[in-house]
Specification:
The chain is an alpha/beta fold. 56% of the residues lie in helices and 11% in strands. It contains 22 helices and 14 strands. The radius of gyration is 30 Å and the shape is globular.
Length: 597
């Protein structure tokens, strides 16, 4: 039970005893005391004034006196208008720190085999291009949300749906066939996904040249787009693929194989992984079958041209196409098919889709359709809708080859971390192996933290230069603080100082120190709120606030040179507890923290 709940229970008892007022604990407003006032926590008194028939100040004084007599946690109180400011006893803070320090799973609820299962889908790449900055935000959010939900006691299955079929895939295949001269990842030295992405851009340039040529001959732009030889060839290739043409299928398998090998390297470097990968080429047929099933049950209807639709007007939406007149599927069909396969594979209690906010309507429709088709979790599915990410220069376009490649971005971040760390002397006395490990942690940590600290529902601009700063709200600042604490702890061990536990909890500590303990007690609540709101940003900004406060403490107070053994031991225990929370919290963001810098 956290401190707010303990105090809420006593306040509820106080107002019932003093004024005969029944109040639910969760209705009592308790908040952190503002820094300009004395106290740790503040109770809002106004809701009790009417029952007390007294002024807010007198009501607050009576409740404060009752709490002081009936709860040893409190040491004093003061009343400012309708606010009762409570000071917590130092012994309570020290006992609390002792408990936190001994709890290696502090803030984490470990799932069991009986825990509910949450499936989280993220990444969802196309096999016609490498992963880019937009995918980076998606993957980082998906991975972090999965870790946060596990920390809240959910069993989690991380899944990926790969869009490996369709006209866009055929464009890369056709361009390679026409212009590739047999080029392979081995012959070119390019990662497979980069090579295939190169030919997606090649197709677009050649296609635009054909459009320009046709418009110069008098065709309208729309006519030129539809009749350009390249697009007609791509469409024929897609038909051949759907008819299982062996040559086309072989080329498709070969080029997709190149892409998957490239993706695997990128995922590994980014630190994300999946428990199960589904492929659109396998799920779209399942979706067609499920739509036919819905048609037979009267959930959907067929129009005269043979197309199949869902009428969602009674749900406040419109009519949604599910199968075209020629029997081919749409994206919604694929998602229904994927849902079926997942439901067959896992006992899902909650399904979460990590997909950008441009797909809000799609998932609103999908939720209704899955519910109509009988999926238990259909109505309660979560579309984790996040905002777009851009660079300071503006938007990116895959077809024009102007995207920021994920591999290039990670390499640049690592090199920036190397340069900045060397300039600041952070790598002095490190071995070459340690240097490589540290610059990798710092570069990728900077990238991940900068993206995850932003409210995921907002659009954001990623600024690489700002992210590699060892000061301010950045990953490197937090990582360096962790390394600093670890350095202090190593020196304490070398000096033979015992900080395995607090041997005494009855000595005075400063207001700054009690505030730090109060701050670390909030970690479990932050983890819980981050899970409920699907927001890694809550974890990121909490860790930053904790680190900022610790650095002020580190600057103002002596640790190893403190003469009092009790205070020295306490400050080491406090420091180690904070380092543990930093490591756990950053781990929930998928960020490693170095032991030394």
């Amino acid at each position: 039970m956290n401190l707010e709940t303990i105090l809420g229970t006593v306040v509820a008892d106080a107002v019932k005893t003093l004024y005969g007022l029944e109040t639910a604990v969760n209705q009592i407003q308790i908040q952190k005391t503002k820094k300009e006032f004395e106290g740790d926590l503040t109770v809002v008194i106004f809701p009790f004034v009417k029952a007390a028939h007294k002024s807010p100040e007198q009501t607050g004084k009576e409740i404060g006196e009752y709490l002081l007599q009936n709860n040893p946690v409190l040491s004093s109180f003061n009343v400012i208008k309708g606010f009762l400011n409570l000071s917590i006893s130092q012994r309570y803070w020290l006992e609390t720190l002792k408990d936190i320090h001994s709890n290696k799973q502090f803030g984490i609820t470990v799932p069991t085999d009986q825990s509910d299962l949450m499936m989280i889908e993220y990444s969802s790449p196309n096999t016609n291009k490498p992963l880019h900055l937009g995918h980076v935000r998606n993957n980082l959010l998906g991975h972090s949300i999965a870790e946060i939900q596990k920390a809240n006691g959910w069993r989690v299955v991380k899944t990926n749906i790969v869009n490996d079929r369709g006209i866009h895939i055929c464009k890369s295949m056709l361009a390679w066939k026409l212009f590739g001269n047999g080029e392979t990842p081995e012959s070119s030295g390019l990662k497979g996904d980069h090579l295939v992405g190169k030919y997606y851009v090649v197709f677009d340039k050649a296609y635009k040249a054909e459009i320009k040529e046709l418009t110069e001959k008098g065709l309208s732009e729309d006519e030129a787009k539809k009749s350009a030889p390249l697009i007609l060839q791509a469409q024929q290739m897609l038909i051949a693929w759907e008819n299982n043409d062996p040559e086309v299928r072989h080329l498709w398998e070969t080029m997709n194989g190149w892409v998957y090998a490239g993706f695997d390297k990128t995922y590994k470097k980014l630190g994300v992984e999946f428990d199960k990968i589904y492929y659109e080429s396998q799920t779209y047929l399942e979706g067609k079958g499920k739509v036919e099933e819905g048609l037979n049950k009267g959930v959907f209807y067929r129009r005269e041209d043979g197309s199949v639709w869902a009428d969602l007007t009674h749900d406040g939406l419109d009519e949604k196409l599910l199968l075209r007149a020629d029997g081919t599927s749409v994206y919604m069909t694929q998602d229904i098919g994927t849902a079926k396969l997942r439901y067959d594979d896992y006992p899902i209690n909650k399904m979460v889709y990590v997909v950008g906010n441009e797909q809000n309507y799609h998932f609103q429709v999908l939720s209704i359709l899955l519910d109509k088709l009988g999926f238990d979790w259909g109505k309660s599915l979560v579309h984790f809708s996040y905002g777009m990410v851009e660079l300071p220069e503006g938007k990116m376009k895959s077809r024009e080859g102007t995207v920021v490649d994920a591999d290039d971005l990670m390499d640049e971040m690592i090199e920036s971390a190397r340069e900045t760390s060397q300039e600041l002397g952070k790598l002095d006395n490190c071995t070459p192996e340690e240097i490589e490990n540290i610059v990798r942690m710092v570069g990728l940590g900077a990238l991940k933290y900068f993206i995850l600290k932003v409210d995921p529902r907002k659009n954001m601009t990623f600024n690489p230069k700002e992210s590699i700063d060892f000061n301010g709200n950045t990953g490197p600042f937090i990582q360096y603080t962790h390394a600093r604490i670890k350095s202090v702890l190593r020196k304490a061990q070398e000096q033979g100082i015992d900080f395995s536990t607090l041997t005494d909890t009855q000595f005075p500590i400063s207001e700054k120190e009690s505030y730090l303990i109060q701050l670390i007690t909030e970690f479990p609540t932050v983890v819980q709120e981050a899970g409920e709101e699907f927001s890694p940003a809550l974890i990121a900004n909490y860790i930053y606030d904790l680190v900022k406060e610790y650095n002020q403490f580190y600057h103002d107070f002596s640790i190893l040179k403190e003469e009092s053994f009790n205070l020295k031991q306490f400050r080491l225990v406090l420091s180690e507890s904070i380092a543990s929370i930093i490591k756990t919290g950053m781990g929930l963001l998928g960020i490693e923290v170095p032991e030394r810098m």
